[in-house]
Amino acid sequence: MANVQFVTEQVAPSTTSFNKPIELYVFVDLLHPGSWHLQSTIRRLQVRYGHYFTLRFILSTELASLNTACQQLNSSPSDSDLIDVSHPVLPSIAVKAAELQGKKAGYRFLMKLQEYAMINAKNVCSCSTLNEIAEQCRLDMMEFKSDFRSMEATRAFQSDLCVTREMEVNEVPSFVFFNENIEDEGLKVSGSYDFEVYEHILEEMVDEQLIPTNPPELEILFKQYQTLSTEEVAAIYNIPEKLAERELKKRMLQQKISRLACDSMSLWQLK
User: Fold this and answer.
1) How far apart are CA 32 and CA 150, in angstroms?
2) What family is it from (predicted)?
3) Residue 40, C-beta contacts closer than 8 angstroms, at least 6 positions apart
4) How far apart are CA 36 and CA 152, in angstroms?
5) pLDDT (tens digit, 9 = 90+) per residue, 14-67?
6) What is the rounded CA–CA span in Å between residue 268 and residue 271?
7) C-alpha torsion 181→165→152→91, nearest 10
8) Which CATH architecture has domain 218-270?
9) Mean pLDDT of all residues in 149-157
10) Dihedral (C-alpha) 216, 219, 223, 226: value to the nearest 10 degrees?
11) Rounded distance, CA 223 to CA 39, Å?
């Protein structure tokens, strides 16, 4: 695998648990379609091996016009003036604003943003759509709108860009694996690969045979991720897609989930 490199400089982790020996940095560009396809791989890793690693998303949307976008946000006298504002940098700042309400809130926002980009065909670069996503994620809207316009969210995004440069990440998506020994080099994997490749790397980093966790009941999985594709469900439970489709339709008839209109894949959502 040609796109594997060692990273000598590690950013001091703030969330690493002593019970989880690996910290996984995932570098994504929110506007790059290839980054979205990582979702299934990351979810499978979380479900099967989440007890081995902590996950940190790094937003790597490098934009020369970042300052212009920030000026637009800061110069608007009220939230209503931002409704029609649209800029490619705004989704990244919005994710950081959501993260100020907690890591889980930020992750929910990022996943919902992906869903909107793939399914709803809405302009996720507009303030009105980003506010709608925040409401769907049940964020504190007053706090979100205030944080969205704050320098704190902008600086958090700028910090991600600094991490991207420090680790010399030149391609998105990219994974960087660090073990618990801060003196060891990290392992950078540029590009997107099959699940088994990341599984093998994780095992090499842990330096022991991985012990997978059994996936939870389907209803619990939907509570965790809200929206899942038939392909994801089949992969997570290691069953044929036809069987996954049958189980999902059964729960749709029970009115536990609903099917979403999407041309590119079969998607299901918790009701």
Assistant:
1) 25
2) Belongs to the SpxH family.
3) 195, 229, 231, 232, 235
4) 26
5) 444 447 899 999 999 887 766 667 888 999 999 999 999 999 999 987 665 455
6) 9
7) -110
8) Orthogonal Bundle (1.10)
9) 92
10) 110
11) 16
Cis, peptide link before residue 13, omega less than 30° from 0: no
Confirm whether 4-166 and 218-270 share one CATH topology. no
Residue type, 120: N
Long-range contact list for 144-147, CB < 8 A, 24+ apart? Answer: 144/97, 144/98, 144/101, 145/79, 147/97, 147/100, 147/101
pLDDT at residue 260 is higher than 70: yes
Q: What is the pLDDT of residues 167-203, one digit of tens each?
A: 999 888 999 999 887 777 889 999 889 999 999 999 9
Q: Which two tokens stand for residue 69?
A: 């976008």
Q: Are 60 and 210 spatial neighbours (Cβ–Cβ below 8 Å)?
A: no
Homologous superfamily in CATH for domain 4-166: Glutaredoxin (3.40.30.10)
Res. 87 pLDDT band, cuts 50 70 90 = confident
| pTM score over 0.85 | no
Q: What is the pLDDT at residue 139? A: 97
Quick one: pLDDT at residue 39? 84
- How far is residue 229's CA from residue 130's CA, in Å, rounded to a whole number? 23
Kindly list the domain boundaries of the chain, sorted by start residue: 4-166, 218-270
What residues does 228 pair with on adjacent strands? 268
What six digits make up the tokens of 26?
Answer: 């995932």
* Secondary structure element (H or E) that encloses residue 260, with its range: strand 257-260
Residue 162 main-chain phi, psi, to 5 deg: -65, -40
